[in-house]
Structures are given as structure tokens and as C-alpha cells.
Amino acid sequence: MKNRLRVLRAEREWSQAELAGRLDVSRQAVNAIETGKHDPSLGLAFRIARLFDMPVEEIFSDGED
Fold first, then answer.
1. C-alpha–C-alpha distance, residues 28 and 50, integer Å
2. Where is the HTH cro/C1-type domain (predicted)?
3. What is the SS3 assignment for 2?
4. Domain map of the chain by residue range?
5. The pTM is what?
6. Any idea of the CA torsion for 8, 10, 16, 20, to the nearest 10 degrees?
């Protein structure tokens, strides 16, 4: 799954640790999602979308677009 998490985080000048704190997950979890090593749970994907005030589909894609 592809995602724009790293770009969105960088636009806000947040560190991985800062984003992790806002999402109540570990910094390692944020890193794993950003690098594509781990896909977020559905609940976490929705929390991320709410935090960035964007639809889930604008942050995550299946890579077929």
C-alpha cells in the first residue's frame, strides 16, 4: 500500500515522534507505515485521516492508480 504520510508530516514540520504522539502509537509504527513495511489498521488509518483532515483515499492507495 502506498501512502503520503511522510509528505504530509513533513509539510507540518512534525517529527515521526511528534506524529506518533498525536496518534498514540510508537515512533517505530509511524516509520513502518511511512516506509511501507506495515499497513495501518483500519482504525489507525481513519485516525490519521482525521488528524490531517483528509479522506483516507487521499492518504493511502493500493498503488494501482
1. 21
2. 5-59
3. strand
4. 2-53
5. 0.90
6. -40
For cell 517529527, the residue is: 15
Adjacent-strand bridge partners of 60: 3
The Cα angle at residue 40 between residues 14 and 43, in degrees rounded to 5: 95
| pLDDT tens readout for residues 14-46 | 999 999 999 999 999 999 999 999 999 999 999
Q: Which fold has domain 2-53?
A: 434 Repressor (Amino-terminal Domain) (1.10.260)
The length of the chain in residues reads 65
DSSP of 32-60: HHHTTSSPPPHHHHHHHHHHHTS-HHHHE
* Secondary structure of residue 24 in the 3-state scheme: coil
